[in-house]
Amino acid sequence: MHLIQRMKIWKELRRLEQRAREQPAPTTFVDLGQVYLNLEMQDKAERIAEDGLALFPKSPELRQLLECARRGIRNKRAAELRAKVTRAPSPKLYRELAGVLVDLGDSASLHSTCQEWGTRFPDDAGCWLVLGQARLVSFYRDLASREGLEAVRCLDRAVQMEPSNVEARRLLGELLYRIGAVRAAEQHLVQLQAVDLADEEVAALLRHVATLSDHGDDLEALLDDVESHGSLRHASLAAAPRGGGDESMARVRDGLAQVAAMPGVVKATFIRGSKALVKGAIRDGKDPFLRVARVVAKAAHRFARRLDIGSANKTIVEGPFGDICVCVYGEALAAAQCAAGADLVQVMAELQEIVAGALHLAEK
Amino acid sequence: MSKIHEAVAELRTAKGVKGAAVLTMDGLVAAASLEASLIADVLAGLSSYLLMTTNKSLKEGGMGGCARLTLHATNGKAVFVDLTDAYLVVMFDQFADIAAATKQIDEVAVRIRRASRLS
């Protein structure tokens, strides 16, 4: 690129960056990200999109920009890995490349890569596992019988080549019980348990499968049945009704009530994903306190990560409204708005208890 | 050395403080005294992002502005104090007792406000 042209672009970038800081709007962030994309600086475009989404989380343009930037990063990574594979092929490199191609959704390249991987390393079951996973994603999305059969074939091949391959056996077992081949699934899960007797997840899966009705071993017929009905025969373990979640939320609710009852606390909330529990003087879901808690948690997290000081767990914002205490661990967030005179140390300790308790129960 | 620089440098002597700086809301460094691992421009940019984001959400909710923000992270802590059009940022290590340094930070903030008015 011509020097003057480069200088012009850098000047434009500086102008847009300043505009994004002074007058943040989705279009400003998108314009800035687009310039970075044109310069093939996808990592910077990704950062811009993330910063924009922290301010405007519902903006479809910013989501599109983020997707585009990430796709560009993955394409770059795929090209690098492809060059490495050509120079010095190894199963590890093939696995990494296949992973990137799965993320890109480039099924044609994935199939050719796996074919090449299988030809060069015929004793490695990895290519069959990756192919099986890709087919499985398509099957769970479209419930097309053909994709299901291919998934079973690939995973079965991976299990035969490497009977101790836990991932392949687990995926195969799950697919089989969900389409109704419960007895066949049980055989795989029992073998999976033999590999690691202490695996609680497999034990829970076996208990869940034992409660389901078997519909035979004719996989083709079972898969056709799923396709024609448009639904899987049995629910997954995660979707099956459990008591743990209720217990977890009950504890959170009690914890929040305790915080809201503390002297000086005006309102309190617990947020996980798109769900929020609230206590105190909160009008509705549009209460600004809820938005402030989310925004502050996200911005503090980004500040700490970028500055390399780890994860931001606790933040206190002071202003004419009083104090807003935010405590975050992982995806669980608890926050409280306090008036003057509240014991912030105590409030923060209680919020931490709520978040830690919720995480502990979620991990059980 | 100007009074603002002096005040910022003085904060460095407090226990657990890794650096202090006066930053404008648009990410410019007015004065800084930071240890080598902290880069002034990076700190300014990230602080600007954090404070502008926080202030924007507060103002949109009709809650006014942010007078002070305290952040505890796994490997460090930070305090931001509003100076009107600028912020005093103090970075601590993770073991520092922020409560013990609050009085000194407040005093320095008052001195900086006074110095900036006079200048």
Which short descriptors sum up this protein?
heterodimer, A: 364 residues, alpha+beta, Serine Threonine Protein Phosphatase 5, Tetratricopeptide repeat, Beta-Lactamase, 3 domains, five-stranded antiparallel sheet, flat, B: 119 residues, 3 helices, 5 strands, globular
Description:
The complex is a heterodimer of chains A (364) and B (119). With 364 residues, chain A is of the alpha+beta class. Chain A has 15 helices and 5 strands. In chain A, strands 2-1-5-4-3 form a 5-stranded antiparallel beta sheet, sandwiched between helices. Chain A is flat. The mean pLDDT of chain B is 89. The longest helix of chain B is centred in the middle third of the chain and has 21 residues, at 40-60. The two termini of chain B are 14 Å apart. Chain B contains 3 helices and 5 strands, in the order H-E-E-H-E-E-E-H. Helices cover 43% and strands 29% of the residues of chain B.
Briefly say what this structure is:
The complex is a heterodimer of chains A (364) and B (119). By secondary structure, chain A is α+β, with helices and mostly antiparallel strands. Chain A contains 15 helices and five strands.
Write the layout of secondary structure elements.
The complex is a heterodimer of chains A (364) and B (119).
Chain A: H1 3-22, H2 26-38, H3 42-55, H4 60-87, H5 91-104, H6 107-120, H7 126-142, H8 145-161, H9 166-179, H10 182-195, H11 200-210, H12 219-229, H13 244-260, E1 265-272, E2 275-280, H14 288-306, E3 312-319, E4 322-329, E5 332-338, H15 344-363
Antiparallel strand pairs in A: 1-2, 1-5, 3-4, 4-5
Helix pairs in contact in A: 1-2, 2-3, 2-4, 3-4, 4-5, 5-6, 5-7, 6-7, 7-8, 7-9, 8-9, 8-12, 9-10, 10-11, 13-15
Chain B: H1 3-11, E1 17-24, E2 29-34, H2 40-60, E3 68-73, E4 76-82, E5 86-92, H3 98-118
Antiparallel strand pairs in B: 1-2, 1-5, 3-4, 4-5
Helix pairs in contact in B: 1-3
